[in-house]
Input
Amino acid sequence: MYYIGIDVGSTYTKVCILDSNYAMIDLYSYSTPIGQKDYFENVMSELKKKYPELQIVSCGYGKSNVMAVKAISELTALACGSNFICPEVNTILDIGGQDTKIIVHEEGRLKEFFVNDKCAAGCGMFLKNTLNMLGKKFEEIDITESEEPEVKLSSTCAVFAQSEIVGLLAKDCEPDEIIRAVIWQILQQAKALLLKVECQDLILSGGLTKLKGIETYAEMIFKRKIIIPEYSSYMSALGCALQRK
Amino acid sequence: MEQSVARLQAQLMKDYYKDFSKYTKGRIPEHKVAWVTAFTPVEILEALDIAYYYPESYAAVIAASGKEQTLIQESTKLALSSDCCSYSCCFEGSISLEQGPRGIPPKPDVLIATNNQCNTLPNWWNILAERYDVPLIVLDYPGETVERDIACDYVTQQHKAFIAEMEKLSGRKLQLDKLEDLIRNSEKSVSAWQKVVGEFSKRNINPTALFDGISFLITSRCKAETSQLYMAMADEYRELQPTDDELIPIFWLGYPLWYHPARYLTEILDGYRISGSNYITWWSLDYSGKDSFEKLFQAYNYTFLNLTQKTRTERLSKCIAESNAVGAITLRNKSCKCDFVSAKNVGLPQVEIEIDMIDRNYLDVEKAKARMEIFKEILCTI
Output
């Protein structure tokens, strides 16, 4: 029997495949497709060919488009997956493309959650838009050993911050400095969520964790130990795969 | 008994609304008129035969009639930002256009604002004072920030000065025994209302009835009929079936949604029942004291929203425990940040939902549904 978890996120879809002994067989991701229902029908038939005995559990924005035995919330999945990878830390800050969430779990069971989906300046999309403006690629960013940026965005609104960036560019501000300021701003917005829960060490998850040097940068802002586990962006998919009927 | 509740409600409403523009055809009211905020010591006004009206409550009535959007839009012409409290936006729109389900309240001779519920509220009342060119009296309640004896002297001094001003306005002399009787009425209203609330967690009571029912404790708390109404309601509720154990009991932490026909989000609460709410306890004022002045001080200085975070948390915890709720829906209200502060330490699994108690466009129902799904997963795995 194979257990497949599919996390259909707003930007990427992540897949995790476990065997019946919880050994990881495969882990991969791809851009979340348009026309999801048809797409996942094809995915299902391919998976069934490869793994005749399987159970699929889905989560994420497009979870209902997957023909799964069960669709669960991405936060329930994240709690379960995170506990499997890093059971000693029970608080996770997930900075996604569209929203930022903080969750607390108890042995993998979701206990508390708070979501910021009102403020674009606290989400990954803000960085994506800035990179588009600057003609930079996500993979090129490296904030290792970065200090607190000299340039700060005064606006807490992503829309107005974009105007501010235009002004900074006109003043010949270095694009890398602007990017550091944007990441600083996203983390500052996310920091407000930390006040809602009691926590010491913190697991960081979401697309932003793929940035080079984010761990120490986040530690500087959050003033606590930050853990970015291997497979951090797959924790929800893993949490789905860990569900047993 | 049902007829008695309906009759008493109708009587109290008729009494409150009889001088609104829809019914008076421009006739000038017989009494002097005060507009007051929700935690004003209205027993003093009642004792001096001054009529009093609550703009905040009327904003809620306007939203319940489904007319709030036009009026909120109108308020933007008055340079009120949409970030301002929707009570103020809705009511300012109403008086500007002279529109409302019952017309508008009679023009004020005086405005009375208190800071025992919201510190920004007196600023809104400055706008009203400018509009009507009438005096604005602001009563300052220090809450728990100073010792009780000092606070009592300070508030009593203000109440005495307030009485002197209101005597001048009304041309009457305040009779202390009449004031004492009215305070007793308020005490009885609170006591009877608490009996109503006490049945809420035990019986199959529609929360809508309580969210609407408390309006009489706001607008008519010192009228003799109010305690009669609540006693009749409590009698009626005692006859109802016990609560349905199949449903998950949850606490509604915040305002009713006045624009919603049920006053709460029925569409996302399948499988739940509301077993308690802090809002319905806000006007359960404590009138204890050796004389009328101490009683008024005690009641209006220690309103829930004027308490320290520590005391709020203690009261809220007690309220939640009595409701037997296993989780809480915590409302982040665009219009009332000071209420949200009180929800800091709930001590129960909770789900936060962003709402406004007046402006229906502020709620994203789909997002709220998604959060309730997660919340159910939490509650069902405890």
The longest helix of chain B spans residues 176-200.
